[in-house]
Each structure stands twice: as C-alpha cells, then as structure tokens.
Records
---
Amino acid sequence: MGSERDAELTDELAADLAAGFESMVRVYQHRMYAFALAMSGEPADAEEVAQDTFLRAHTALRRYPVDRVRQLKLNAWLHQIALNVFRNRVRRRSLRLVPMEPELPVADTSPGPEARVLSRAALRELANLVSGLPEHQRAAVVLRCVQGMTYAEVAAHLEQPEGTVKSNVHRGLQALRRRAGGLSEVG
Amino acid sequence: MDLLEKDLRDLGRVRAPDGFADRVLVAVGIVPAGVDAYTALETPVGVLEVAWTGEGVSAVRRAQGRDHFERWFSGRLGRRVVRVPEPPDRMVGQIADALAGRSPRLRFDLAGLTPFEQEVLRKTLEIPRGEVRPYAWVAREIGRPRAVRAVGTALGHNPIPVLIPCHRVVRSDGTLGEYSMGGPEVKRDMLRREGVDAAWLAELAAAGTRFVGSRTTHVFCLPTCRYAQRIGAANRVPLRDEREAARAGFRPCARCRPALVS
C-alpha cells in the first residue's frame, strides 16, 4: 500500500472523519479482509474480524487528536488492530457461532503478472491450511507472505527479533508444504 | 518464489465480499453516497420496510425479510440498499405524520423512475386523505388524458406505496382496481382507515353517478371531494357526466377538478 496514498488518507481523516473513514474503508477493505481470511480460515469469521477492525479503528479515530491522526501509518496501524481483534476472539472463543451463509472469497484476477490464479475453492483450502498453523508461525507467515510486509515490519508488529520471525516464517512454510500436498495442482 | 509462496500472495489478493465496505460504513453510522439506507418500521398498517436517501424516502414495502427487500430494491431502482438499525428521528416523525394524515412534510426521492412515473406519483401525492380519484383523472391532470392504462401500470409499480397514496386512485366504474401492496382487499382496508367507504363508491357507480352537484353553489365535484361532502341532502344533485353537469348549469369544482373547464 503506497505511503503517499496513506498520507492522503490521513489528511482526509484529519479534515473530515466521515469522508476520510469512507475512503479508508474502500481502500483497505480487501487487504484487511484478506488478512482476516488467512488468519481465521473461515470467510464468515474473516468478515467479522475485518469489520471489527474497522469499527475499532473508527472508535480510535474519533478520540485521536488531529496531529496523531495525521501521523498514523495506516497500513501498520490497521494490521495491528486486526491482530488484536483476532487474538481477542481466539481467547474468548470456547463456543463458535455457526455462520449463516458463508460467502466464498473471490480472488482479484486483475493485478499481478502471474497468469495462474488459484480457484476460489483452492484459496479457501489454502486459507484453512494457513489458519491451522500454530499462532506464532501463522501471524509471521500471513504478515510476510500473504500481506507482503518486510521482515523488519513483521518483527515490529509481533514485537519479536527479526531472526525469530524469519525462522517462524521458514518453519511455517515448511509445515504448509508438507500439508499442502497436491494443493498447488488444484489451481 | 516457489508455488506455495505465489499461492500465498494470491491469498493476499482476495477481495472482500460484495457490500462489505457499505456494511462497515453503515455500522458506524455513515450512509455511503449512492447507497440507500433502509430499516423496518412498525406502523399502524403493519411492519414496513422503508428506504431513503438524503433526498427523501425512496421505497416502501411490506416487510418480507432482508434478502427479499434488497433483491426487489436493486431490481426496481438499480441502486444498492443497506440495512441500518434506525432511521433519522426527523424522518420517523414525518412518516408517522404522513400515515396519520397530518400535513405531510415528508420528501421523496424518485430518482431511478421514468419522468412519466414521477409525474404520476407526484400528482397522486396531491390526493387528500379521505378522498379518491379515478385513474383517468390522474392521466388528464398530468396532460396525458389517453394514458389511463399507463397511469395504472405506473401506480401498480409505485415503489413507495402507502406514503405515496396510490390506494386513493380507483377505477371510474366504482371498483377499486388492483393494489400492489396486496390486492383490492388491502386497498379497501387502507381506504376504510381513511374514512372512504368502498361500498358507497360502488353504489354510486352502479347508479351511474360520477359527480355530485350543489343546487346552492352550482358547483359539481367528485363524490369524495371535501366540498361535495358538505352539500346538504336537499341540495345534492347526482350527475352522470360532464355534459349533464354543463347542461344543468354546474361549474366544475376548482378543488377536485372533476372535469376540464370547458
């Protein structure tokens, strides 16, 4: 996500919360949903986590002084909120709600030079595999490989040394490769 | 980058489901531009789903559930609609006033309808509570006297029934005609709530009476016109048509405009 665009968004948020928030949601909705889907593995959960993320962001933005809003690094900030939302859910989840009509996620086929795009079913299966990783590996793999953050950024988010993040990503990928088996041929 | 890592990048390009952003915005109280909001309201005529924009009320349906309303709405008006917990207070008051027949201040958003439909609906809004007008009256009033059938169609597709009172438009033969909110029986009930006796209308029509004249003022009206209701029994003259009225020296009422001034 371009930092120039983030600067425009934070300026807009500082000037007019409602308009800025709408722009921010439209820009970040897919990214935050993708993050939530990879972390939770379930489309219905993903929508809830992503929605909660934006609701908390809105509550925070209403409280923040204008200067603080202007200095927000939106991408990192939203991911941090999403991570907290996700952790809180995991903590309190002893009973699970039954999703009513889980919508299948759709891959955006427009960007990216790679012609090969996973089918919906394969994406969902992959999200499921990822969400099955132990939490320390999952967050590292998702932030690094799904959301495309640098190791330094991931390390800052997870408050871990970069070396730990690298080894968690490495082990996470190994585990996925073992479990994925034939998944890559599905696409 | 190996296959797995490519797949993971694909996972990062997943799109949020349709309407996700709208739902988020509505949840924090922002109704996005180009999207109508709606909610279900309990009214004296039942639970209604009511949609609106910044311009005014855009749709009303008898509540049949979320999916039903949203599908119908985008099919009829070509826009998206998002459910919100509650409508603006001011609007609730205005809808209550309109339903109770108190001087309606309610505004409407008729965007998405044809100019003809808009004219028909705006004309229908002028029909006072407790009165009815024939389809032909609406057609003539909007300057399309031959478009009676098209008026019927436009009213049958009225996206804002109850609040735009298409139930007050009836057939010239004294029968009530169709009603999109649930057929002639519902139309009869709606009119009864407003003090219009459908059986009486049918009797008049059966007797061939389309207008009522006053011997004292020499004015003739549609039977439900408030002025016609004031004519004392002794001075009341049943009239068959405009010609008979003209021959007897009656002028058309300026309020209900029963016939073109000739």
Note: The radius of gyration of chain A is 17 Å.
---
Amino acid sequence: MSLIFNISRDDFLSGLASLQNVTGKKGTIAILSNLLIESQSDAIRMTATDLEIGIRNTLPAEILSEGAITLPAKKLFELVRESDAAMIHIEILENNWAKITCDSTDYKLAGMPSDEYPAFPEYDEKNLVSLNSDDLKELIDKTIFSVAQEGESQFNLTGILVEKESTEGRNKLRMVSSDGHRLSLMEKEVESDIGLLKMEKTILIPRKGMQEIKKFCEAGSVVQLCFEEKQAVLKTEQSVIVIRLMNGDFPDYRNIIQVVNKAKYFELNRMKIMTSMKRMNLFTEDRYNAVQFEIANNKLILSSQSMDIGSAKDELAIAYEDAPLKLGFNGKYFVETLQVMSSDTVKAYINSEESPCMIQGEEDPGFISIIMPMKI
Amino acid sequence: MQTPLPRRIIHLDMDAFYASVEILDNPTLRGRPVVVGGSCQRGVVSAASYEARKYGIRSALPIAMARKLCPQAVFLPVRMARYQELSQRIMAIFARFTPLVEPLSLDEAFLDVTASQTLLGTAEEIAARIRMLVREETGLTVSAGVASSKLVAKIASDLDKPDGLTIVPAGSEEEFLAPLPIARLWGVGAATRKTLALLGVKTIGDLKKLPPRILAAKLGKLGPLLVDSARGIDLRPVEPEREAKSIGNEETFATDLFDLRRIEQELLALCTRVGRRARRHGLRGRTVTLKLKYRDFTQITRSRTLPAASDDEQTLYTTGRDLLAKTEAGSRPVRLLGLSLSSLETAERGQLSLFSPTTKKEKCRRHLSHAIDAISSRFGEGAILPGKLLATEKE
C-alpha cells in the first residue's frame, strides 16, 4: 500500500512554507532537497533537514492509505502556492511518483523513497522546559542583528551565545552576539524553571538556527526548550526543531563590558539620532559606512562623505559638557542598535577615539550594545 | 547633439629599460651588448640592450643560454631600486599631461589624452613632447604609439622601436593593422597562429576576409574577439591606479630546497618582506596564501583567513608555517616559495576590533615592527634581521 491523503490547501501551504529554509539547495545530497512525508493516524508528518537544522511538523489530514514518501520541497511548495483549491489530494504511485490533484489541475511529481531520508535526531522529552515565546523572541531580536556573517569573522562569532543565570530565585536568560566590531547583549527574567536546562557547555546557536527559532516563537505563546549534548531542541504543539550546536567558545564579553568607563557619556533622543544617522549613511563609502562624530558643548555634529557622491552634515542637541571628542563610527551599526531599542532617550558612554562605546536606555532593561569606533 | 571626441590614447614603452639604465649609469657600456638578469644559475634575462638583441638574446631567455649566444656581452645583475627610482620620475612626466595614466609595469604605460588636447595640443604633439622631456630629464629614450584604442596604441609603439613614434590617425586603424602579422594581436599565440595559418591567414587583414562562421568554428569565443581586434575595435578604458588586490613575494631558489628548516627560514624572509611592504602602504590583509612549486613544476597554493586583518610578520610567519605543514615541503624538493597577503584593507581607516589587537604583547610587537621599519629604511634592507635569518646569510 502506498500513501494517499487529502489535506487542506492552506494548512499544507503554511506547513510547507515553514520548511523551505532548511531544505538543501546546494545539492550535495540530492534527497535533502526533498521533504519526508509520512502518514500518522489522522495527520501527516513532514520533515526537512539540511543536516544542521531539522524541522518536523504535523498537519491534520485525511489519510486514505498509510505510507511514506519524499517529494521535492520547493516544487511542492510552489504548486500548492499557485493552487486555489480548498483541498489537495495526493496519491503515491509506482516508482515514487506522486499524483497531486488540486481541483482541475493534475500534477505528476517525481519523488524518492522515504527509507533513504536521514533519520531525525532523537531527543529526550523529559528535558523540555516551557518558556514564554515572546521572551525568547525578544532575546533573539535584540541580538541577532550583530551576529558575524559567515566567512566575515571567526567561526565562533557566527552564532548567538545563550546563557542562564539564577540568583535569589530569579531566573534570567541571556543572549550575546558579536561580529568582532560590535556586541549586543540582552538578558531577560523568565518565569519558567530554567534551572532544569542543561547548559554546562558553551551554548552557541548558529544564526540560521536562531532565525528558525524566532519563527517558531511567532507561531504560539509557549514553546518548550531543551539543550542536549550536541543539540538544541524547541517544540511547539505541532512542530519540533532540532539544531546542531556550534563547537567552540565565545570571546570573553564580560571583560569588554567591564572595561567601559561609565563616567563620561552623552544623552540623546533615540529617534532623532537614528533618523539623522540614516541620512548620514546615504553619503558614506560602502565598505565602512564611516560617520564622523564631533561632540562638544551639548552639540553633536554628524558628518559623512563619499568620494563619488558628496557629503552630508547634521547637528543635534545632546546633553554633554565634557572635553570635546572627535571620532568615527560605522553608521549602520548605530542604526541597527537604535532600531531594536525602545527608550526615548539613550545614553552613549564614550571615553576616547579608540575605546568601546556602550549604548543603553532606561526603557531597555537588560540590553547593552557596544560599538567599537573606527579610525578616521 | 555633439559627437564625442574620438579617444586618443598614447602607449609609451621605454626602450630596453633596465639595460638602458645600466648604460646611462655607466656610459662606457654604450654600444656594447648589455644583458641584465638574475645572478644565480637559474636566472633569466630581464632586459637586453639592442646590441645584445642582435645575437638573439631576448627577455626570459635563460642567462646560461644568453652566455652561449654572446659570450662577449656584459652581464649585469638587476638593480631594481634604481629602475624604480627612474620609473617614478618618468611616470611623473606622463602625469603632467593627463591624470589618466595606467602603468602596466615600471617601463610601460597607457595615457588617455583625449581631454588634454584642448589645453595641451594634439595627441601627436603631446606624445612628441613627452618623448623629448623623458630624454632631457632622464637621458633615456621611450617609444610611443598614438591611436584611438589601447590595442592599436600598443601595437603602434612597438613598430618603430627604439626611439620611435608611430601615429595612427582616427579612422585608419583597419588600414594600419591590415598588413601586420597576425601574431601582433593580443590572444594570438603559437597554437592560434598555426590554426590560422592553415586557413591561409598570415596578416591581420587576412583575418577579416574569413567568414565569421568559420572563425567561430575554429577558434570558439576567441573568433569574434579577434575580428574586433582586427578592425582596431577595443573599448577598454585607460584605468589609472589599479588598487592593489594583494601584496606578495616569491623566491625561486638557486637549488631546490629539501630541508624543512631551511624552507622555514626562507618563509620568514618572505614574511618579513611582505609585512614591511604592507606597513609601508598602510595596508592590512585578512588572507594569507602560501605558494609552492615542487621540482617537477607542480604548483600548489594553500590559504587561510586570519581572525583579523594583519600586517605583522610574526602573524604571517606562524600562519605561513601552519600552511607549509600541510604541504609536502621537506619530503619533496621545493623549487619556489611564495607568500601573499590579500583581502586588503586600509590600516588607518579601519574599523577597530573589540577583541583582538590591543593585547599588550601585540602592541609591543607593532612598536617593534615600526622601529625595525625605521632602521631598515635608514640603513637599508638587511641592516636589521631576525636572528634566524642571520644564519642563512652565513651559509
């Protein structure tokens, strides 16, 4: 007997969409560009993996005959997306051919046998801890933008560091990311009993995995999380994602935060400086996005110039009465940090042209951003 | 609408540059065959005076062969620093006439003088003035070709060497090229020449008579390209100052090296040179590439990306040595060793790093490098060397 089922087009489409990012596109192993589809009692279970991340979700379906098959993920997604049928009928024929019927349209899609699909990683349900998904999402949102691009920096900076801290009965989760030029840290008190989370080893989750976790968090209000020897597991009612942890250590970020001298700082309106910075970024050279800061007498003068285009200059009122400073920053770094914050007024602690600048805001508890200046 | 001015491009090529400089510095050599080239037994001819060329001595000919062809020639070592000095003076003369100077090497450059003509006279006049100024200010001669494209200008400058000036008026490129042998065109080597000879093509003019279909069938992509070239069509612009993509040095050894320790010494010497050049140009690089040629001429490269851009020879050396360990150096004779630094960024304007360079040790090393650079530039390369390299000097 081979797999035959009916499924709601909308359910199927959203299920397929959630798997697109982890289906292999590079084509090293052909079957990885396929999805594994297996029947359950009154559902189908779909699995996708790129061997770093595995996602599995369960969708309600009418099973007419039990079985399993793998089908090309992208083509299947595309044909379901283009269909306006309410219900889609799939029937597996001989030689792994799938006959797909959407209203008046018939497709024949070549599949591959299900037994060649890699096994989904196992995990222990007992380790799972429930977490508020908004908390987890916020932690990711406020750190993911400063993760190093692959090949741009050291490998161990291409992921987000996850830590937990329990003091006096209060539980905190912390995420830290850095691309070597800037660092973002977000910590948040959580209500769940994260004491049960096994986090003895450095937990480093690659950027892509974090993006998928974020999507999981958007789907429901509670997620279940656990860390095992080599993997992170996140589960919702209908889906589970298993991400292989990165091997390696994260640089000593505490030391960097500690050395920032908080005596000297200026205060500024977050929206004002952000929009001004966006204007300055129009006139920076592509590679470094250098924006010049001149700070003196309650005034911040921002300027940028590009050899090919011209120059831009803006003047902002700030609270600063210390010795004048003249330094450069990558304008993009500032905008990205200010964008994830919510305070009206932010404080920028700056000591010298070559020391790290720390940005914090009253209404952004737990958030720290550090940006290194550039020599101008 | 005004039609744009036809481009006027001058190709300037110093006559037997290295050899001419040697004669300039030692006038007793005038009129004698002079050969400049590597000093070791494997060296090749870098330049030959026109007198030496009469004996069939050409650039890239092994020195040993040159000695056989003309035993009475004066053989001199390469004095690169002196050639560079004169080259700078010559390039400075070129730059007086247009900012669009594209140096191809120490002794050769393209100039786009299209826009200079309103101010400084026609391209022909400019070329004549440049030739005169070079002779007056340096005592050397330069040949020039004036045409509407790089391709034709370069062919023209070579036509009346030494001390020649060839002008190809706009519109007469095809006519000019037609009688010339096909090998004058870029991209035509021995193999293509043979293929074309079978089709009865000897001159550039012959090429245009062939149906494009046959040309494409015989030569593939090169076919249409050659037809364009034969018509004198070459739209490539003159590109001033090409930004350096990498900084590298390599060394072909007088005798193949077996001993890994000895190879590492050579590597250190290379790293010292590359580091110094990077610092002199205010550049740092993220990628270190090691190049190795074994005795049988098989060549391999191995590279690694550094966590942060560097100009420090110690970092280069440690990385280079790791890369060397991945090769067969030590078990297979090594003929050539090279090291280069790429993914360059300007050291001064760079983004400062959160984690790396400010450790005390690295700061010290940076100071040390700068001190060594200062000593070397005052007392000459080799005035101060790593101890490991002193041992090689003695050997």
Note: Chain A touches chain B through 22 residues (CB under 8 Å).
---
Amino acid sequence: MEHNIKVEVENNNILKITGDVKNIDDYQLIKENAIKLRDKGAKSLTIIFADSSSITSSVIGFFLKLVQKDGVNLDVKVGQDSLLSLMKTLSLDNIFNVEKI
Amino acid sequence: MSDPVSFSYPNTKHILKSLSILIVEDEELTLGILSKIISPYVKNVFTAKDGREALHILKKNDIDLLITDYWMPYMDGLELIKEAKAKNSDLPAILITAHSDGINVADAVNFGISRFLTKPVDFKKLTSAIEHSIQNIIIKRLELSNKQKEIELLKYKDKHHQSQENHAYAKQLNIIKNDLSNSSPTDDIIKAKHIFYFHHYYKPFEILSGDCYSMRKLQDNKFFLFILDTMGKGLSASVTAISSTSYINHLINTNQYNRSNSLASLIDKYLYFVKDVLLDDEMICGIFAVFDFDKLIFKFTNFSMPPIFLKKKQNKIIKLNSNEIPITKFTDKFEIKTEELKDIKNILLCSDGLIEAMSNNGDIYLNSIEQDLRNSNYFPELQKHIQGNIQEIPDDTTIFFINKLSIKGFFEKNFTIKSSNSEINFFLTTVYSRMENLNKLKHLAPTISMILNEVLINAHEHGNLGITPETKSKKIFNGDYDNFVAEREKDIDKNISVSFIISITNKELYLIVSDEGKGFSPHIMSKEKPNIENYSGRGLKIIKTLSKDFFLNSEGNQIAVIINLAT
C-alpha cells in the first residue's frame, strides 16, 4: 500500500493527518486508525487535516457512519480553506463540527 | 361522615385539585380549621400567620387563590391583597372580616377582592366564595384546553397536507421527463468533433407549480425541449401545466414526433388537446424547440416566453424574441422558426422567473443576463454570476443551458487500467508523482488527483461493479462495504479507460473516463440529492465543486470533466 498521508494518534482521541488525502489507501489508513480508537472506547474523536485541501467521498461516508451508527462525536479541524469550503458545500460542517485550525 | 364541602359544579372539584391556596389568619384555631377543611380538595394549602409571612410565601410559590383575614398584625388583609395584586393582578382573593372591622366596601372592590366572608365562617358560603373566585381560572383552563385541541387539529391537518404535497411533488417529478440533463447525446466524447451537452435548473415556486418542462431524446440525433408557464389561478394553472406535460410526453413516448418528423405537427396535436382543457380566461406561455445536431439547426416556437439567448463566436449574444402570443382556447395558428447552430457556443432558454428577478443594482435581471452569459462558458459559471447578481435564483424558474465544446488539445494521453481498487491506487499514485514533476501542473496535482480518484471510484464501483448508490449506502452503514467491493472485484474482468487532453488555448484539462458498465441515467442524476442520511452520492458533488463542469455521454458510462488549469 502506498500512502500519501501520515496519521498520528494523540491521547487516544486525536488523529492528526498530514499530507493530501487522495486515494483508497489513504481512506483505509484513516479508517483503520479511527476504528482502533473507537474500539478502545473513544466516544469523541478529533480529526485534524493539517494540510489536505480536500478529502475523498469514501472518507466522508465512513465519517458519517462513525457519527450516526457508532455514536462517535467528531470534531474535524482543517488547515486549508478549500477543505473548509468543501465541507460547507456538502453541508457537513455541522455534523462533523468542522473548524479551521 | 358527610362531606362538609360541596360545590355547584362538578368541574370545580377537578380544577381545585390542581390549585394552590394560601390562607392567612392570625388566629391559630381558625387557621387550623380552615386548612384542615380545604386541604383534601386542593393540590397544596399554604398557611401564614400574618401579611409579611404571606408575602414571602407568595414570592416563593405559585399561588392560585388567596384567602385572608382582615385584621392581622403588621398589615391588614386589604393591604396584603393590594401588595399581592401588584405582583399578580389576576390573583383572586377572598377577604374574611368581622362585622366590627368597618371596611370601606368600595375600597375593597377597587382592590379586586372576589368575595367577602364574615366571621364565623359559614362553610357553605366558603365553598361558594371559592367556586366564584376560581371562575376565571376555570374559563382560562377551558380556553387553553380548546386552544390545545385546535393546535392538535392544525398539526394533524398540516401533516396531512405535507404528506399530500410530498406525493404531489413526487408525481410532478415523475411526469416531467429528463433524458438529457448533465449529459451529451454523443456516444463517444473523445471521438466526437463537437459535443453538445445539456444542463438544466428547475425550482418550482410551489408543489404542482405552473412551471413545467421536459428534455426528450428523439430519433436521428434530434432532441426536443419545452418549458411551459401556465398563467391563471393557482391549482387550475397547475392542472393545465401537469396535464400538458403528461400529454406532450405521451406524444413523444408513442413516437408521434418521429412519425411526422415535424415540430409543427407535434404542437398542433398539443393545441388540439390543451384548448379543450383551458378555461376562457387561462393562457399558457411556452417554448418548444427541436435541436438537430446532425444538420446543426434548431427549430422553435416561442409563445410569449423570454427570449432564447444564443452566444456565438466572439461572445456575440443574439436574442430570439418570442414570435407568438400566449396559447389560449382560441389559438389556431403559429409559426415555426429555424436557426443555425453552426457558430453557437451556448444556448440559454428560461422561464420568466429568472429574467424578472430583481438584480442587486435594482434593475430586473433581464438587463444583466447578456453580460453574465458573455462571461460564462459553462453552466456552473453562469449560475455563480446569476447568484452574484440576484443573491438567489428565484422560485418558479426553469433554465436550460446547452453547451458546445470541442475537446482538443496539444497534449493527449490515453490509458487503460484494470477495474480494481489496487490498480486504481497504483494509477493515481503514478499520475500524482508525474504531475508533481511537471512545473506547470505541480500546484494542481492535489485537485486533479482528487477529481480523478472520485471519477475512477465511480467508474469502478457504480459502473463496472454495478453497485447502486442505495446498496453502497446500506453496506457502509453496516460496515462491510470494503469487503463487499473486494468480493465483487473477484467476479469481474473489466477495464477503465482514462484520457487526459490539455488545451493550452483554453487553459483547460479534459479528463475523460469510461467504464464498461450499463451507465447512469441522466434522469436519476438530476434527482440525486445526497443528504446526511446517505453514506454515498458525494463523489459527483466533489467533482462538481473542484471542476469547471462535467457531463456524461449518451450511455452514461463515460464522463468528461473540465478542469481549470489557469489557477
């Protein structure tokens, strides 16, 4: 698998993602790390996209499932205006509590 | 033991059970007796030995009735009632007096005392006084209960109407036929010299709107569009619009156009139908147009609708004004006009909702539309200009936008990859690293890569694997989507073709991706509205957000995405 991103886990409830989220491998990496934290009992996750200008629809679908089925609260922090704008365009800013870093 | 307290009305007992009463009396024995007799019939009895204590209780509790002796230490009963009423003017109060108290009755009435009782207290008079004093409470409770019932009834009616409206709107969308939006009649976008493709925007003012439309595919590379704006009163106009749309689509479905090959004949048949439907004072505005992309002409009749706007070379705008008055019960002739499509770049047809909207400059939008069209090569660009000019596209608006595009450039590269997640990933990574090594594309590598990812995933999952958006959403919810895709991949041996064409002149990249699936229906795409409950369907929205425009081929298994290289 070839990843364009690096995922760091902090305090068992923070995922810090650096690099651009571009393909299925990136999605898988984010998913695996988020599921590990969920399975450890995290009820609230902070996902930081430090510099990604967008995210893929697969990641969005997975996040929606995390919130709505698994009951995990997400706080998504984004570094890039373009990602903030995409989240607003897709009306996901409220459900993911999206904020600019 | 007989009940010492009896009331004239059966409801009184019921209401009393919800009330709190304050009894103020400095004689402990009288206070105790009054409290003991009244307690079983009310929710709470509060007692106070003087006015100061009483005011404290009134401040801390919701008291519904005050019963007070007149002669007490610190303040008399009248002063207590005066202070209590200053805080709650609706509080009913009963004053208990001795004959020797010498109260001024006029003053007492002015203080709003409901009833007087004289000592020693007669229990029949006490119950009568209580019953009289709480009459206002009984009336208010009754009003509240009736209001609540009315609200419940309104809520029920509203729910019923909402359900009716939802069904009516679903029916309206079912009657409207859209074979063309977001798509081109071209089979193979790469091979075509010139591509015409369609977009539409439809926002009805109300359910069963007077605005209706359809976009239909005919035979021999011909396409029929119509917009109707029925003028008249509310539902009557809606019935005309819906029945007209149903009838015209029935004519198309039963090959009536293809048999006669004549727009005039089609309109004749429609007029024959609708003249029987119209009331004497009703009329219909409408545009009927047939586009022939082989002969590069279009024929139309415009019954009092806004002009058709054509953008030609050098961004020259031509307005084709209405050539007929509105259709009425008495319309018996009309003229068909013909225009060439040769030098056309864009065509805009719309209903009057758009051109009559007020611009930010205080003028109607009709006076700004030509400039906005001149500045827009693609429909999303035009929408942005419109929104910049009039804040929001108004309700009861229908817009058709036809774009002519030549996909050619100095650079063209074609690839074929196996339809699998691992191949797609490898391809994406390779393309990304190549773009990163090209100075002119480096800054666009993330955007292009993200669009390419969404397009390839759509081609793979929805195209080649034939996974419906509903199945995808359900599987993501259950957490087994990735395994489901992996299993499906094993059973197929299909490819995805990818072409990159760069136009230096237009500073655009045309990304064309084809799959070997059955293809998307434009009708489904035009209805597609992902919401929070759906776990799929955002890919196209991401493509739309990041690109200049996109459209599908006639089969729906090839997508062309136009990407801006100027930034």
Note: Residues 135-175 of chain B form the longest helix (41 residues).
